[in-house]
Amino acid sequence: MIVKNSSMILAGIFFCAMCGCAPLGERLISCAPGDRAAIVKKINKAGREEQEKAVSRSLSALGSADLKRRKDAAAALAAIGSPAVPAIVEILKGTDTASVKTGITILGDMREEGAAAVPELILMMNGRDIFSAGLAKEALVKIGAPAVPGLIALLSDQDSIKNSDSIGILRRIGASAVKAVGEAALTADTNLRQKLYLFLFSLGNEVKIEDAISSVLASFSDPAQSRGICMSLLMRIGPPAIPGLIAALGHEDAGVRRDTSMVLTHICYKNNCGLERFLPELRPVLNDPDDTVRKNMEGLLSLNRTLGENYWEIIRREQNPPKKIPCRPDASDRERRDIPSRPEYFGAEEYLNLLDQGMLIKGATPGSISFTIPQCGLSAAELGEIVISRIFDDHKTEVFHVTVKNGEATAEINAEGKYFLQIPFRILDTSGPVLELKYDAREVPGSVPHLKSSQLVEVKAIDRSSHSFAVSGIGGVYVLFNKKPSPACSNSTQSPKAPFGSNRNCVYKGPFLVPEGIQRLEVFSFDKLGNIGEPVALTIFSDASPAVDVLKRNGRKLSPGSTVYAEPTDTFTIVSTDSLPKSVASGEIKTFMLVDIPKDECSYWSSGGVDGKWSCEDPLYRGAFSLPSGEHIIYFSSEDAVGNRSAEKQVKVIVRARG
Asked: Would you say 137 and 165 are in contact if contact means Cβ atoms under 8 Å apart?
């Protein structure tokens, strides 16, 4: 019984030392990760002295010979957060490379709590130690929003490498950086503002940039600024930018008003913009002294009409109430009254209403009916196409040819019904779509774009019309590789089994891949009336094959996965060539080499290499080399200019001196 109680006492002492009764700093290191938050809360509640003790104990544990204890100590410091930052920063100023790497990683694991270390991390990011610089960049990404002001300040530097590094980190921080970037742009000089806006534009569509609206709108409305990038950003922001854009329609500078109407039209092309909320602000725009502004507004409002809204009719009636159109029926018993014109389109081959109102005729006696032709810029030939149509409840149409005289269109009718002044849609829409290709390729001076074969190419088609209120819409987009269009390239004869880009399978349905090789790409588009837009044709080098790399000893090829014997005086070389399976090579090959560590195992705990060379800190192959005595593994791979990277290969080398 005594022995049993002694065992229990010993077990209790051990448990107390490990978790329950040990100093808080030791418990923070030793206990389970899930318990650290509660222990940190107790340390903070105990006050500054306990915080300093916990930091000191964890710093001491970083020097332990036990790898697990070192990792636990690093996790403890990260959990302590901002109170530990000054001590970690002092480690970063030291000369011990391993300790510096550990310190950087701890700061990153603190997330926003590591904010006070941002200036030191930015210095390390631009230091000579490549591996420490990489860890510093990762730490800044993890810290997130608090790191943004320092990274923005770095953009003021004229050093292109620093600029590139800063933009890369900001892009990875993503949405958390948007608000601070927008605020900084408000007070930045023109050069820095342009860089900040380009950064916002480079963020993917999945990142919302609404937090930068006020900054972008302020720059957009300033005639001294380049508005191109601001327009692109506002288009990206979409409907949340509409209130600010509506206000910009009243700007004194006509250029601002023109660009504003263009941005609004782009945003409302696929969105229900709710413009009825802004009728008071939109009324004056209909009488804008600038022709382009007025036409753009007509296009904007007609786009909303195609979405089933009557904004254009509502605004135009409120601005200029429609005049009553005189009717001259022969029979005195015929009743006529004005009825609203339906703003919908009846199909690409049908007719479009030219007036806000039609006529409802009651009584069966034949007679004449007249409409005043609106002044909408129609030529004499176009006026000759005007008709008066009777629209039935099932949307069927009876067309009456008219006599045009003194601005009046008159037709003889023979029955009661709803009559409208119309013109064929094809007369108004005579322009084809505009095409834009979006892809990420390497531009080679004096050559054609080089594209990685796994990179998608996107086609954007926007229909245009010679009359902004009559846009028929996209009828089809077609893509061909190394071929000219034939009658087979149409929706009715397509075969999904045929190769994409052939005449039997040429309809664009979404982003596509370009087959490997030298490809002549032709893209063209029709609108629903058959108007063809300007085609896009270009040659692309599509490269899917990684470089071929060979390890040689004294000029003799070594097989990947083999084991070879060598002497300290033997010379090893890596020869990398860009493969040409289909006459396409991207060039500018980078060859990577590591000794005694594969790239997947590189970390701040281990970087491999021999005598400071061929390690994770500097993995680039720099020419012929020899290895010291011992057993080594050489890992090597290559990457071409568009990003195709070969699989990492390895050769085991046993080096022994002769004798």
From this structure: yes
Residues 334 and 365 sit within 8 Å (Cβ to Cβ):
yes
- Which tens digit of pLDDT belongs to each residue from 216-261? 888 877 755 667 788 888 888 888 888 888 888 888 888 888 888 8
The stretches in the chain having pLDDT less than 70 are 1-21, 128, 158-162, 223-226, 269-272, 276, 279-280, 283, 298-350, 356, 363-365, 375-377, 443-448, 466-470, 487-488, 490-492, 579-588, 604-606, 659
CA distances from 336 to 37, 326, 329, 369, 420 (A): 82, 10, 9, 10, 13
Q: In DSSP terms, which residues pair with 248 in a beta bridge?
A: none
C-alpha to C-alpha distance for 89 and 116, rounded to whole angstroms? 9
DSSP 439-474: ---B--TTS--EEETTS-BEEEEE---SSTT----E
List, in sequence order, every residue forming a beta bridge with 362; answer none if it has no partner.
335
Q: Does the global pTM surpass 0.70?
A: no
Q: What is the identity of the amino acid at 178?
A: V
- Residue 348 has a pLDDT of 36
* Phi, psi of 73, rounded to the nearest 5 degrees: -65, -40
In whole angstroms, what is the distance from residue 377 CA to residue 393 CA?
A: 31
Separation CA 241–CA 207 (nearest Å): 16
Distance CA 63, CA 71 (A): 10
Give the C-alpha separation, 568 to 81, whole Å.
Answer: 49
Task: Check if the beta carbon of residue 88 is closer than 8 Å to that of residue 77.
Answer: yes
Tokens of 67: 């790898």
The dihedral through the CA atoms of 361, 362, 364, 365 has a sign that is negative
- Residue type at 371 in one-letter notation: F
- Cα distances (angstroms) measured from residue 346 to each of 338, 395, 423, 466: 21, 8, 12, 19
Beta-bridged to residue 557, according to DSSP, are 552
Q: Tell me the per-residue pLDDT of 618-641, one tens digit each, with 9 for 90 and over.
A: 888 988 999 999 999 999 999 887
User: Which pairs count as long-range contacts for 394-400, CB under 8 Å and 24+ apart, including other chains?
Assistant: 395/346, 397/346, 397/350, 397/351, 399/351
Could you write out the DSSP letters of every residue in 120-171?
Answer: HHHHHHTSS-HHHHHHHHHHHHHH-GGGHHHHHHHTTSS-HHHHHHHHHHHH
CB atoms within 10 A of CB 290: 14
DSSP, collapsed to helix, strand or coil, labels residue 340 as: strand
Could you tell me if 167 and 199 are in contact, meaning their C-beta atoms sit under 8 angstroms apart?
Answer: yes
Pairing of strands 397-401, 434-438: unpaired
Q: What's the confidence (pLDDT) of residue 35?
A: 87
pLDDT of 124 reads: 87
In order of their start, the domains of the chain are 1-58 (no CATH), 238-321 (no CATH), 335-426 (2.60.40), 434-543 (2.60.40), 548-655 (2.60.40)
For residue 538, the cross-strand partners are 521
